[in-house]
Every structure is written in C-alpha cells, then in structure tokens.
Write a structure and sequence with these properties.
The chain is mainly alpha-helical and 130 residues long. It contains 6 helices and 2 strands. α1 packs across α2 (33-53) and α2 (33-53) packs across α4.
C-alpha cells in the first residue's frame, strides 16, 4: 500500500513537471526521450531524497515502514540508485522480485538484496493518557 501512496505523489509531481514543460513549450505537448528521461530522473530524485534522508517516503510513513541498510542506517545515494532500478527490474519480471519476499527466509525483495537494504516495520506509537 505504501507503493500506491507514493505512486500518487509521483504522479502529482509528473503532472506539475508536465504543466511547466508545456508552458515552456508554448502550450504544445512535450514528449520524447528527453522528457521521459527527465521524468525518470525526477522520480529517482523523489525516492532518493526520502530514502537517504529519513529512510521513509510519505507512503512508508503512513504504513510505519522504513528502508535502511543492513546496519540500520539510511541508504547512500548509490544504494538508493541500485534499489530504484532494481525495483523496476523486480516489477518488470511480472512482480516476481516483490513476490520473492513472501518465500525467502529474510523476507527481502530482489532490490533489497541488490542494494544491501531491508524494510523494517516500525512499532505503533502508543498514546499515553494520564
């Protein structure tokens, strides 16, 4: 579900970038490899910013998840890059890279292994009423 939340946020960012690009292009549609590359770079930047800063995207915060390296620290830019492109490969193989976490001993997806990272479930915050 965190992926769904984050997908909506990325879609909103894409729409904003598209709006600006169309405005710069005198109201004409923008397409092609340069624009698609820009969207890919912006998408990586979105995830890398969150993963390298706090380990949590907004969707991950909502579901109390955090990505961290195998030692419990936030990811490096290199790890974020490997994780980002690895996630696309994992999804592109009919989702097998994600399904893998259901059957593996460590419950990690392919891109977790490749980037030396893991997803951890954070505890619920207890509301102390005194």
């Amino acid at each position: 579900m965190a992926i769904m939340y984050d997908s909506l946020l990325v879609l909103a960012v894409w729409m904003l970038v598209g709006f600006v690009a169309v405005a710069i292009n005198d109201g004409k549609a923008v397409q092609g490899p340069w624009f698609n590359s820009l969207l890919l770079i912006i998408t990586y930047g979105f995830f890398a910013l969150f993963w390298c800063r706090s380990g949590q995207t907004l969707g991950m915060i909502a579901w109390r998840l955090r990505v961290e390296d195998n030692d419990g620290y936030v990811l490096s830019l290199k790890q974020a890059l490997v994780r980002f492109f690895g996630a696309m490969i994992a999804a592109g193989c009919f989702g097998l890279g994600y399904i893998w976490l259901l059957f593996g001993k460590q419950q990690r997806s392919w891109h977790d292994y490749w980037s030396n990272s893991r997803i951890v479930q954070l505890p619920k915050i207890s509301k102390d009423t005194h």
